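Dear Dr. V.,

Thank you for agreeing to look over these. As mentioned in my earlier message, I'm a first-year student in the group and I'm still getting used to reading structure tokens, so any feedback on how I've presented them would be very welcome. I ran two proteins. I've put each sequence directly above its structure. The first is here:
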Amino acid sequence: MEPPECPVCLQSYNGDSTIPRVLACGHSACESCLNQLPHPQPPTIRCPACTQLVRFPHPQGAAALPKNIDLLRLSRLLLNPNSNSEQRTSPQRPKKETTRGCFTPPLWSHDLYSAWKDWVLPEDAVLLERSGKQQGVGLCSLTEGKLRINLNSFDFSSFSPFRCRLVDDRKVGILKVGRSCLLDDSVFNYSYVGRVMSVLAKMSEDERSELSLFLSMGSKKCHVSEVYGLWFDVESQSLYLVIERKQVTLSKFVDFSYGIAGGGKDGSANRAVKDQVSCMAMIGVELCEVLIGLQLEGLLCGCLGLSCIALDEFEHVYIDLSEVVLLGRKIRKSVAEIMDCTQKTEDLEAGQPIADLLKNDAFVSPDLLFQLLHKKGVQMGNCSFKYCVDCGFDVWSLACILLRLIIGKQFTEEMVDYWNCLFQTKRDKMISDYEVLYVRCVEKITAMWNASVGIDFMLLQQILCKCLDLDPSKRPHLTDVWKSMKSLTVNLQVNNIVNINGEAMNASIRYCLVLGELCSISNEISIVSKELQNGYDSSGEDFSHVSEVGIEKHIVDGLSVDKVECVDLQGHLASITGLSVGGGFLFSSSLDKTIKVWCLKDFTHVHTFRGHEHRVMAVAFVDEEQPLFISGDSGGGICIWAASVPFGQEPLRKWYEQQDWRYSGIHALAVSGAGILLTGSGDRLIKAWSLVDYTLSCSMEGHKSVVSALAVSNAVLYSASWDSTVRLWCLHDYSPLAVIGEDMPGTASCVLSLYSDQQTLVAVNQNGYVKIWMNDVLQRSIQVHSSAIFALCMEEKWLFTGGLDKTVKVQEIYGDEFQIEARPVGSISLDSVITALLCIQGKLFVGCANGLIKVYHH
């Protein structure tokens, strides 16, 4: 037989170092362990054996508790006094698993929420004003540190980003990255964060990965547009990236409409031309550095245009990634138009959509465009390139940008002719040799270069022309382009300065924006209807098995797919004050002095209890061999009713509490498993009544105002009051254990309702706050409503609250025994103040001030 040991440190008891001390629950632990256990609510402690909350001497500690003499005597008999007992190490306590089930089909996982929640901007961070007849950009205001955008009636289907200007002259843009898949006319209104997560959850893993990389690059401020975060516009049901936009564009910094003024008589460049070429080379150097930095992070732009390049406040080159994405979307749209052109009349050239982009100084390499067309099943003559993501995409676009800056519009016109020749139309089938086209193009560019800047920069001209090679494998790397231009700006050899391996850079590339998912996002709203109505999400995964409660599914299983029926139970003539379920029936009390019984199968009215002379304020159901229903009224009357068919007209028992001038009736009821009825009253007392002989067992005094709510859990009674406190009482001897809320006078507000289970305590306040305790430690205090919360209920991990704002709010409570989080899921709007809530058996019961009871069920 093993000697008795402490349940905490597992040491055998002795009379010296491990002294057993007896707690009020009857269990024992050693003195040193009891002193080291946390005391979240002094002067109480959780028994390490049964987790019951019991009183603990303060400040004397465990030494003031009685010794367990019997355990000491038994331990001495079993232990060998001549041997030293080996110290045992405490095994790791298994983590307690929660039995809470799933409330709704997993539209988004906890991991998804944790990964993206910090990127979500507040709902009121961005304000769009769509009033006015003109379309365009309006002024912005910065209010209380929040980014506010003032736009005149903007076309949401356009490809251009929203642009605006803050009062401190910062430009920002909004780039659409997704559309909501939630139904607008659903009974259940998802929260702002919930709508953001629903859009992210419907994205593929590649889309989220690319978006994450985009956000990561935007947060590093490495000469690319800064990304503030994700914002959801409720009116357009769209998710946007809020992105910084610089004021100074490249076109404002230098006039490059006609390129650089020509060379001297002997073909050499004059001093002014050399300065201009050096300036363009410096721009090219910084562009190379930005592109190299992006490629080292695994990101290719894939295309560039003059609209993508701006200057920061220090006149350094800066790439606006949002413009790159918008340009990529235009290219994807042009690909679709090219496919239509190849199947239509001969008068429309297939290359015209790309030519239109070129006229706006937007450049995309042929191999990237051919790759997009190849994915759509369009073959480009005898051109055979490797279809893969290649750094050559950016090299081509960079060379086009620099040549456009140096030569001017003539280069753009030449590129338009070049692209028209690349596409074999039905009218002209003679041209098929792409190498010949490239040679012709280089000859024309060389002639224009000589006419513009002379023959002094032929090395730069040659490497830029090599960048335009149709074969991406023959193009130089960005590092080679950087070296050639850097030597022009500093007049020294830089061959040994940069040692970045171009092949290694190419191997590290993970995403190309133009080929990626951000550029292929549809502008159409995808409404989830048929898929989810059949129990499937867009990915095809079956969620029909989740959250089944008996035969029926949970209420929000239906709310999430808009398959919810709402039944109105009419019959009460005044506000609903209490709801309780038992024996297959719903019991509802009202200020009209009656209790009505409703059948849960078909929601028909079964019976009405009429025995109270005053307003019925609280109800409770007792599930015993003979089910009982208990009700209390504002006059102090308590009625016991038989809660089984046939229902009687008269109560089984009726009595009144003693009244005095302070008395305002019964406000709360609770039942203890020991056959005890507990009442909370207006006289600030909590009374315990025996359900055997209906006599008063005890009165608990401590609250300074009306006792508004009672809850029983783990042999502890929790009582809430208008005095802004929650008190804990031991149900064994009705002694006070602890007081919660006394030390928070600045945030004090009447506590109107309570919920408690094995580990969790939730209280709602008149100021709209919800407070959550886990293992007696306050974990969260959040304002869920803007006004008083009159009712709450909780089932599994879902918390419902309702009150003066006529809205039921749903919060998901998740976490572990050390940390709790509350995530807003959504809301249900009603047309009356909510006075009672109950969620049980997969149904949500809502009692209203107009006497109506609404039942939401799947």
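The second protein is here, in the same arrangement:
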Amino acid sequence: MMAQYLEIKADHADALLFYRMGDFYEMFFDDAVAAAQALDIALTKRGKYNGADIPMCGVPHHSAEGYFLTLIRKGFRVAVCEQMESPAEARKRGSKAVVRREVVRLVTPGTLTEDALLEARRHNFLAAFCTVRDEHALAWADISTGAFHVMPLTRLRLGPELARLAPSELIVIDRDEAEVSETASDLGIPVTPLARSSFDSTAAEKRLCALFSVTTLDAFGNFGRAEVSAMGALIDYLEITQRGKLPLLRTPQREAVNRVVQIDVATRRNLELTRSLTGARAGSLLAVIDRTLTPGGARLLEQRLSSPSRALDVIHARLASVDFAVEHSRFATDLREILRKTPDLDRALSRLSLDRGGPRDLAAIRNGLEQGTNIVEISAAEKLPDLLAEAMRGLTGFDDLSTLLDSALVAEPPLLARDGGFIAQGYDAELDDSRTLRDEGRSVIAGLQQQYIEQTGIASLKIRHNNVLGYFIETTATHAQKMQSPPLSETFIHRQTTANQVRFTTVELSELETRILNAGNRALEIEKRLYERLKAAVLDCAAQISQAARALAEIDLTTALADLALAENWCRPQVDDSRAFAITGGRHPVVEHSLRQQSGAPFIANDCDLSADSGAAIWLLTGPNMAGKSTFLRQNALIAVLAQMGSHVPAESAHIGVISQLFSRVGASDDLARGRSTFMVEMVETAAILNQADDRALVILDEIGRGTATYDGLSIAWATLEHLHETNRSRALFATHYHELTALAGKLEGVDNATVAVKEWQGEVIFLHEVRKGAADRSYGVQVAQLAGLPASVVERARVVLEALEQGEREGGPAQKAMIDDLPLFSVAPPPPPVKASPLTAMLEQIHPDELSPREALDLVYQLKAAAKA
């Protein structure tokens, strides 16, 4: 056995080998040591090899999925090695023959299909990147849903596209592993190198044609060599990991870079579109707006939020559908009630195609198609917009399949086919007979006994059973002579005579006995055969079912966005090809949601107008920290994203000319692994914006230059603002504490000043969170420091130094230096003297308000007044 293990392990050196031994998967040698540590299970030993103990650990096969997930998350790959025959079959080849085993599957992050291993509301993409001469391409597929896409791109766009897709695994040519790994590792994406032969474009084209049963790929699109190579490598990897059982993939869809808004890695992180800065879903825009009811709808929402469209026809079609659902809210509510009962068709179909499914997946297909039919029925009287009407057409044409599955399956089938009991009573006569014999063998025997009593006229005749004879007919010796005489002797065959009884059998009874003994296994075999037949019927309709799944996701997303718009009072944006960007009463959806949850405080809405017929349109935003500048910047970017994904937006009104690119540089942290300071990270991100932004981009910048000396930072911020205005000519929001920049509003035609209003009251600053035209003349940093809890002595010292610096600035350089030189050295203020207790305080401490009568309370007021005068 160990020789077999080592031979199989040699072919899968880079994976943990789960070696099936009866009811367990066992691991040996280094695999056992690594798995025991990763899974926190016992490490033991089994036998010896070259004189040393063999480390061993194991897990039950029926709960292996949970262990797979743990190992995958810790960076391992798993080779699943199954027994391909029973021990009895192996012994036929010889008493010492080893059970034949084969690796049936490689479990990797990008090839998961089981519900227990996947997030139901997220895609699990496997991606492949390829370079052919000067061409680059990225292909990606989700084998759990069948999605399959490809796009040409530049090398510079690889990082942003990987950030958009967030694949679980990236395949590259082995020669490119080092170059690509840095980009992928920044995003937490594991890289799998493959030999160059996997990316050969000629072999790749043949592989794709064979997969889709076509002679040419021309019907799917005009793909370049790099695109074909990337898709072919992806299919080759699936053949390797799935051991030839390829999933049902849809025909490849070619995506164009210029069809979606370009959003780079830093911008996605800063805006927290689908993940917060901590990496969690909670706190992101996606978490706040997700009201979908089906896994397919949730995955579609994340896809559209990650890839806002630039195509006006697409945006308008999506908005028209949401408008319809908003205006017909009762109809939309009825749709959502049906959607609540709709299972995940895509993933059920994928598991069935890979032989990892079961009766429950068949039931999911049945239930999903049934709910689709219900949706079509209640929509028949509605005049639907084009997008919804197309979705409804995708839910029709399943009458025969639905009837078959409905008649064949029980309401709640078991998870696995081997458990049986999933075929409905009355569907198959042979199965019903086997079940009757299995479950009601005693009553069947009783019926046969009554038949023999009537046939013989012997009322005392019995059918009995023992472990030696099995079933037999027993009667007294008196009646035995009658049964041994013609014509009964032709039916009843003598078996045994005892002192008081004579025992007989019949051909019918012997056959019945055999059938009863085999009824359980027979019923299970029949169910397995019927399962295969039903699975084949489903897979024959796979393309149509996949289309129905997409239709249900579209309906779910549309009604979910309508529900959000109605509940949150969002408006339909006007999106066109102009250079407008006019938001009235805009709000930050995540901050507004957080305020409501935490304190119930209202969010202060603000306007923003970056519209310009030509040239740049830039708001230079000043004001103190904590006043809401960053929130204002982000909310306008999020409103643009929501509008172009086809959603209503959190505003009173919104007019947005299509945005081609979205750039955000808000906040920064150091990157010590690459030797980058916070300021260096800030400059790298700013450089990327200035080098890429076009005149249809929306740029939001916060505190450019703050990580270096004052005049260095001011000069960088000044030059950056001029470059945005003169060269990029983008629409932009530029927040800064360099008040000197406000002078540019008088020099640059496209720059306007705006400020976040505050109010001072008795030395403290009150944030109004209102954005107004104009410029701030100070940053209120000392007041914010006081709010943060700095010691009073530090705050007071800061006030003194600030006053001296401001006075010196007004009086010139030498005077400023003299002022600073005259300042006394900082000294720690002595602790304040203990506060002497007030007589009034002492009186109040003795009072129990709940025990006072009205007269006593009035007397107390007079007493307090007298004590205050004293």
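From my reading of the second output: The first strand starts at residue 16 and ends at 21. Residues 840-869 form one domain. Does that match how you would interpret it?

Kind regards,
E.
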